[in-house]
Specification:
Elements: H1 3-16, E1 42-43, E2 59-66, E3 76-83, E4 86-94, E5 99-104, E6 110-115, E7 122-125, E8 135-136, E9 143-145, E10 153-161, E11 167-175, E12 187-188, E13 192-195, E14 198-201, E15 214-216, E16 219-224, E17 236-241, E18 247-252, E19 270-271, E20 276-279, E21 304-310, E22 314-321, H2 326-331, E23 341-343, E24 347-348, E25 354-355, E26 357-361, E27 367-371, E28 387-389, E29 402-404, E30 407-411, E31 416-423, E32 426-427, E33 433-438, E34 447-451, E35 454-462, E36 468-473, E37 476-483, E38 503-505, E39 508-512, E40 516-522
Parallel strand pairs: 1-34
Antiparallel strand pairs: 2-40, 3-4, 4-5, 5-6, 7-8, 7-10, 9-10, 10-11, 11-12, 13-14, 15-16, 16-17, 17-18, 19-20, 20-21, 21-22, 23-26, 24-25, 26-27, 27-28, 29-30, 30-31, 31-32, 31-33, 34-35, 35-36, 36-37, 38-39, 39-40
Length: about 525
């Protein structure tokens, strides 16, 4: 693991043990999806935007950066990066046209631009699926390591189609200052997985990489979903060395079954120093259990899953949780896999005991809080789980929550943005506060900016033909600070893709759209 990521990893370890509330964050940089590997969505180093200066009179759209394709990935941000002999605050943007850009985050100037298409190739067609359209190139949020290669590296998964109609998935590592390929890349993504006497093979054309990339234990982790449930497909986790781009890990979640995709509406795999956590989509779950309570055929479709790494055994699934109706849920496409996960910091009960928890939700309207030391497994008549908030998200969840100051923020499908607080290390069933407006279509994935524990602002995008950026007081969501529809056409930015996540950095909010990135900030 690189030195800079090691320092962030140590900060995360402290937080997850309850000794501090600040999750992994390298200064003002945003190097990974939702700000940190725990996926809290909180930038706690925002010193410019405040509760007192975010309003329609003082804040609005200040620019638009045009790209060559749809931006579905969350932009990333590195401060004070030296490019061409000068220091810049740099915005990294990836498009579905298989292009990666480095823009000056202040004035929008292009610092470099790299196409990941090889000779005779185009981005993939949309496979007859409207989830990623009209072309599929770079969909997942990349990840940045500031100390790999000579100047730092950004890791990107690209999908292409060649002149013979063959599909390709590749992992790329690009120099942060030039966009040049590093480590002999790109590396084609191929895989096989053996379970018992059965061997399954990864077919690049059948899959999309929607989940944000994760750097963990020295490798870059990818997670794979289908195109609109078009068979055949299974659930794959595939990792590549951050310094080599050679394959280091392969795990198939449904090796003797089918389906079980990992997409989480674009959320990245969540991680602690010892575990990866995610929600898996509808697919085969073997209700015949071995003596330790695990599916006998190793099929974990529609489950809250934990994986860890053993150098001798490779990736393993040491624990999981599945509802007692998991098979019925999969058959009805009411699975957990549409939502993301947060690995929460230590939550204290009234006796001062710390609880290591994770939270997630999917299509079935419930919020699930699991104990990371004992997730609960599967019990056909109902079994142990730390806590379930039944019906908390009436129309389900197609996104991920955010966490700030002991509250969890959800904006479910067609629902209000809600803040759920803790009492005695349990979520209170009634929201602490909620927004006055609801969020259209698939809801929103909120992000939070603050200066430490103060000036907390929740940002969320309501997708529509003319999308709207909202800002709320994190301490009371009924207090809307700003929305981009308040000033007529001044702050309009058009339409956005499915499941997009904004970025807040250094006094600006960057919103991915169908044609580029809209930039919001304080008005002059």
């Amino acid at each position: 693991m690189s030195i800079r990521y090691l320092s962030s990893f140590v900060a995360l370890l402290i937080s997850l043990n309850g000794a501090a509330s600040l999750h992994a964050q390298t200064g003002a940089n945003t190097l990974t999806w939702h700000n940190d590997i725990a996926r809290t969505g909180a930038n706690r180093a925002e010193t410019i935007l405040a509760l007192t200066n975010v309003s329609a009179n003082t804040f609005g759209k200040t620019g638009f950066i045009t790209t060559d394709g749809v931006v579905d990935a969350q932009p990333l941000y590195v401060a004070d990066l030296k490019i061409g002999g000068a220091s810049h605050n740099v915005l990294f943007v990836a498009t579905e046209h298989d292009t990666v850009y480095a823009f000056d985050a202040v004035n929008g100037a292009t610092l470099w631009k790299t196409s990941l298409l090889q000779a005779g190739e185009t981005p993939s067609d949309d496979q007859g699926c409207g989830a990623i359209t009209p072309e599929i190139g770079i969909t997942s949020t990349p990840v940045i390591d500031l100390s790999e290669g000579p100047n730092g590296a950004i890791y990107v998964v690209s999908m292409t189609k060649d002149s013979s109609s063959n599909y390709h998935q590749r992992i790329n590592a690009l120099d942060l200052t030039t966009g040049a390929q590093l480590f002999g890349g790109p590396t084609p993504i191929t895989a096989e997985y053996r379970s018992g006497t059965n061997t399954v093979t990864f077919s690049p054309g059948q899959y999309a990489e929607r989940s944000g990339l994760l750097e963990w234990q020295g490798s870059i982790y990818t997670a794979w979903t289908s195109h609109c449930d078009n068979p055949p497909y299974q659930g794959w986790i595939i990792a590549y060395g951050a310094s080599t781009l050679t394959q280091t890990q392969v795990l198939n979640i449904t090796p003797n079954g089918s389906e079980g995709a990992v997409w989480m509406s674009g959320a990245g795999l969540a991680a602690t120093p010892t575990k990866i956590l995610f929600l898996d989509g509808n697919g085969t779950f073997d209700t015949t259990l071995d003596s330790n309570g695990f599916p006998a055929s190793h099929d974990f479709g529609n489950a809250f899953i934990e994986i860890n790494f053993d150098p001798k055994e490779k990736l393993q699934i040491p624990d999981y949780y599945a509802t007692d109706t998991t098979v019925q849920q999969s058959n009805s496409d009411v699975d957990l896999g549409s939502g993301g996960v947060i690995a929460l910091p230590g939550i204290y009960d009234n006796s001062g005991n710390v609880h290591q928890l994770a939270v997630g939700a999917g299509k079935d309207t419930n919020i699930y809080l699991v104990d990371r030391t004992n997730m609960g497994k599967y019990h056909p008549n109902g079994g142990y789980i730390y806590q379930v908030l039944s019906g908390a998200l009436p129309n389900g969840e197609y996104g991920a929550p955010a966490y700030f100051n002991n509250e969890i923020y959800y904006a479910g499908t067609g629902d209000y943005l809600k803040a759920f607080g803790f009492s005695n290390a349990q979520l209170v069933s009634t929201p602490v506060s909620q927004s006055a407006n609801t969020f259209a279509s698939h809801g929103a994935t909120p992000v939070i900016s603050s200066n430490g524990a103060t000036n907390g602002i929740v940002w969320a995008i309501s997708p529509a033909s003319t999308a709207v950026l909202y800002a709320y007081n994190a301490g009371d969501l009924s207090l809307e600070l700003y929305d981009s529809s308040q000033s007529g056409s001044r702050d309009e930015f058009g339409s956005v893709g499915h499941f997009i996540t904004p970025l807040v950095a250094n006094g600006r909010v960057y919103v991915p759209t169908l044609t580029g990135v809209a930039v919001f900030g304080l008005l002059k």
